[in-house]
Amino acid sequence: MSAVEESWTRALERILELTVLLHQDAARGLARDGLTTSRATLLWKLREIGPAPQRRLAEELDVSPRNVTGLVDALEATGFVTREHDPADRRASLVTLTEHGASVVERLRRQRDELARDLFGAMPETRFDAFTAGLDDVLRRLHTLVAEEARAADGAAPS
Amino acid sequence: MSAVEESWTRALERILELTVLLHQDAARGLARDGLTTSRATLLWKLREIGPAPQRRLAEELDVSPRNVTGLVDALEATGFVTREHDPADRRASLVTLTEHGASVVERLRRQRDELARDLFGAMPETRFDAFTAGLDDVLRRLHTLVAEEARAADGAAPS
DNA sequence: GCAGGTTGGTGTAGCTTCTTCACGATGAGT
DNA sequence: ACTCATCGTGAAGAAGCTACACCAACCTGC
């Protein structure tokens, strides 16, 4: 493997290290609010799209409807959300943030912005711009790779 | 929030998107080899440090010894590792890669290098260098933040 | 040489996330 | 009114993780 290739591998390794650190940091912060990653993800989505039936949440979060039932059960028991009646469909229940839930999500949002400031605030603007440009490149490449892989998987085992 | 601050938040969001994509991609690839993320992490560590007692693996992976027992059980049942007798300590068992396990880990290593090439190979060198420079900055910042947080937590609840 | 504390691994019990399958209740189209 | 699709949930189970209890084997110090 050439020196250039090794530098690519090292860069990927550092990205993976970053993902681990971010995940750990997030999980620890959420635990302080009595939340887990999955539950917080649901709350976050709720902040984004407003009260929603569980089916919608399952699609948005890309998990099974049954899983959403469990997450909402837990969030309801701990006072983050309530299940309201959907006036338009008696089968469905509108998952809704409580006041407490909304305030916690708002705090999470502030903490995210703080983290962004802590990470990038001290970086010279030109370096920041170069970094985000490279980041966009990587994201685009990754998106196309994932799409190609999905196509290949479909071709091998068409659903 | 100023425009600059918003750009920081957007950058962080894109990093988080990257972590999600990488994690999904990795999990899907591993599933094809009959592995999960946790089990693959153990195999990877084994490749790095060679045959090791479970206690050592628990420390290296930062999980409970009990958890390692379960992971090794599964990896042993699926033929990736064996538990060898430690000649120096009859309590301990040396977790050792089988031939199959070693070849799979080797393939994982190659796939990682391929991914790195796919992600960075088409990037102009100056952009790549600028990206990794920014990445290093972010990693350093994050490391110090995590360290500070750990210190604060220790101060609040000294173990 | 052996009592006493330490360490390595695992049984038990439990939580969380996630899945699939089955089923009841409701909604919607013919 | 009948049929079929849809919403949510019970049941069962895989996988990762934890803490606690316990045994066997190791290591000290007398």
From TrEMBL, chains A, B:
<keyword id="KW-0238">DNA-binding</keyword>
<dbReference type="Pfam" id="PF01047">
    <property type="entry name" value="MarR"/>
</dbReference>
<dbReference type="InterPro" id="IPR036390">
    <property type="entry name" value="WH_DNA-bd_sf"/>
</dbReference>
<dbReference type="InterPro" id="IPR000835">
    <property type="entry name" value="HTH_MarR-typ"/>
</dbReference>
<feature type="domain" description="HTH marR-type">
    <location>
        <begin position="5"/>
        <end position="144"/>
    </location>
</feature>
<dbReference type="InterPro" id="IPR023187">
    <property type="entry name" value="Tscrpt_reg_MarR-type_CS"/>
</dbReference>
<dbReference type="GO" id="GO:0003677">
    <property type="term" value="F:DNA binding"/>
</dbReference>
<dbReference type="InterPro" id="IPR036388">
    <property type="entry name" value="WH-like_DNA-bd_sf"/>
</dbReference>
<protein>
    <submittedName>
        <fullName>MarR family transcriptional regulator</fullName>
    </submittedName>
</protein>
<keyword id="KW-0805">Transcription regulation</keyword>
<dbReference type="GO" id="GO:0003700">
    <property type="term" value="F:DNA-binding transcription factor activity"/>
</dbReference>
<keyword id="KW-0804">Transcription</keyword>
